[in-house]
Amino acid sequence: MKWKDVRRAHPDSWLVIEAIDAHTVGTRRIYERIDVIDVCRDGAAAMRRYRELQRCYPGRELCPVHTEMEELDIVERWIGIRGRLTLEMAA
Q1: Contact indicator for 15, 39 with CB cutoff of 8 Å
Q2: Where are the domains of the chain?
C-alpha cells in the first residue's frame, strides 16, 4: 500500500508498519510500499508492539507511526559500537 491509502484506511490511528519497498535518500527512508502489521490503541502500545516484533523478526524493517502525518518522515540513524540501524520519525 501507499501511505495515502494507509491513512485513508486507518484515520487517526497508531500503527506498526513494515517497509515492503523502500530506499534511502541522504538520511531519510523513503517508503514506496508498506504493509500495516498492527493497529494499536496509543503510541505506547505501538512502541511495545514494535519492540516485540523487532525482537522476533530483526531482519524486517518495521516502524511505529501515527496516521496524522501527511508524509512519512523517517530518519535512518546508526547507533552503538556495532552500528545498529534504527529508524525514527523526524521531529
Answers
A1: yes
A2: 3-89
pLDDT for 90 beyond 80: no
- Bridge-partner residues for 38, per DSSP? 16
pLDDT (tens digit per residue) in 43-69: 999 999 999 999 999 889 999 999 999
> How many C-beta atoms surround the C-beta of residue 78 within 10 A?
10
Tell me how far apart the alpha carbons of residues 78 and 1 are, in angstroms, rounded to a whole number.
27
Indicate the residue type of 66.
H
Question: Which has the closest alpha carbon to 64: 28, 83, 24, 36?
Answer: 36
For residue 54, the tally of other CB atoms under 10 A from its CB is: 16
Q: Hey, what amino acid is at 22?
A: A
